[in-house]
Amino acid sequence: MYWLLIFIVIICFHASTSTLTSNSSAGRVEYLPGFQGPLPFYLETGYVGVDENEDVQLFYYFIRSESDPDHDPVMLWLTGGPGCSSISGLLYENGPIKFEDTHYNGSLPTLVSTPNSWTKIASIIFLDLPVGTGFSYARTAQASHSTDIQLCDQAYEFMRKWFESHPEFVSNPFYIGGDSYSGVPVPIITSLISDGNEVGNKPYINLKGYVLGNPLTFPEESNYQIRFANGMGLISDELYKSLFRTCRGEYRSEYISTSNAGCLQNIELYQKCIDGIEQPHVLEPYCGDPREFLILPTQERLKEQRPLSKYECRMYRTQLVYYWINEASVREALHIRKGTITEWIRCSSDLNFTITLNDVRPYHQKLSMKGYRSLVYSGDHDMLIPHHSTQAWVKDLNYSVIDQWRSWKHNEQIAGYTESYSNMMTFATVKGGGHTAPEYKPEECVVMFKRWISYQPL
């Protein structure tokens, strides 16, 4: 009887201290099809179960810092969309490998190392989120539905479980990063972690701040596209002034009265002027509507490639990942669970996802008051979320300037412009960058990130 009582006590104690235990699975990847030789960095992939009964299985790629992983920062990276796989960040933005820039010959695409990886100075977890993105999947129909708030809750649960299974990184400085739509969940997740630390949630996460690129932030964002178009010479000064006068600064169709004929006529003229402009980067060739392209099945998408696309259209160059990741050998190397995702899609347009939040400025204000660091950068040739709108909400936080607007340089050349504020927020433009700035200007962006993460001025 005495031993039975001890056994019961041990079981109860274990249950009370293991509330985050998960059927997580992870494995190291030493070789990848398409890359010659062993990987020159530590790559781990795996799943972490979250939500009720762990019916949401979130897939991640973890790359350990190539410098000093015992002390370097750890960063969670979310790609935008919503619904774009985090491998977009890994292979096209800030990871240590990329596809070789050669004409595709029909074989498995070749992967090569890149010197411009953010993993040179930080460990990065690239997470497929929300559920249904990339290789993340749901075990029930109900679990396949999610909202932006659930996305954030699941990301927080993921990080607690990930640190529980990787205790060697718990004391490292921790940041959250992302771009585009991730401008919405990143400050919310940062706030959830901060609140969790304050109420004593375990493990304690050594949160230091967040990083955002061309981030979606508030509803009036698109109003700044017209200002951007005028500044880039896409519309005339006369049309810009007429638009401002007739529409009173509000250009979103749902807010324009049908009786405002002058505004509607000017909006039509504006649309004609920008027809044929590649909005993610206005200087690049126009390759059609990416939304129409992405909803095509893989084989149809590959047939759609035009001769121009092989060399000039970035949207088509990114299709190499389809030839690669849907290969059985690649999936096996990445430890993908068989039968979970039949056809991998880089940016899914068929998510069971509901957006309920469209203004996260209060979260930035809250985090500013708590003293968290933040780097907000904008590729200055992006028309989707122009730098004007990002500057507007940053200034609306109403913190004093401590480092006035100036250029920042790389290799003695101007790489962009920057301004810093008393809330420990740094804003920076990336000269010549597009919507996902590291994709267009990888060398400049890794320099920017390295200086900031090392507490150096840009």
Explain what this protein looks like in three dimensions.
The protein is α/β, with parallel strands linked by helices. The protein has 2 domains: 18-219 and 356-453, Rossmann fold (3-Layer(aba) Sandwich), CATH 3.40.50.1820; 235-274, no CATH class. It has helices at residues 2-17, 87-94, 148-165, 185-198, 224-231, 237-247, 261-274, 290-294, 298-303, 314-317, 320-325, 328-333, 361-370, 387-396, 437-440, 442-453, and strands spanning 25-29, 43-50, 56-63, 74-78, 97-99, 111-113, 123-127, 137-138, 145-147, 174-179, 207-213, 352-354, 373-379, 401-410, 413-421, 425-430. Strands 1, 2, 3, 4, 7, 8, 10, 11, 13, 14, 15 and 16 form a 12-stranded mixed β-sheet that branches. The protein has a two-stranded antiparallel sheet with strand order 5-6. Helix 3 crosses helix 4 and helix 6 (237-247) packs antiparallel against helix 7 (261-274). The radius of gyration is 23 Å and the shape is globular. The N and C termini lie far apart (68 Å). Mean pLDDT is 89; it is low at 1-19, 293-297 and 303-311.
Question: Topology of this structure?
Answer:
Elements: H1 2-17, E1 25-29, E2 43-50, E3 56-63, E4 74-78, H2 87-94, E5 97-99, E6 111-113, E7 123-127, E8 137-138, E9 145-147, H3 148-165, E10 174-179, H4 185-198, E11 207-213, H5 224-231, H6 237-247, H7 261-274, H8 290-294, H9 298-303, H10 314-317, H11 320-325, H12 328-333, E12 352-354, H13 361-370, E13 373-379, H14 387-396, E14 401-410, E15 413-421, E16 425-430, H15 437-440, H16 442-453
Parallel strand pairs: 4-7, 4-10, 9-12, 10-11, 11-13, 13-16
Antiparallel strand pairs: 1-2, 2-3, 3-7, 3-8, 5-6, 14-15, 15-16
Helix pairs in contact: 3-4, 4-13, 6-7
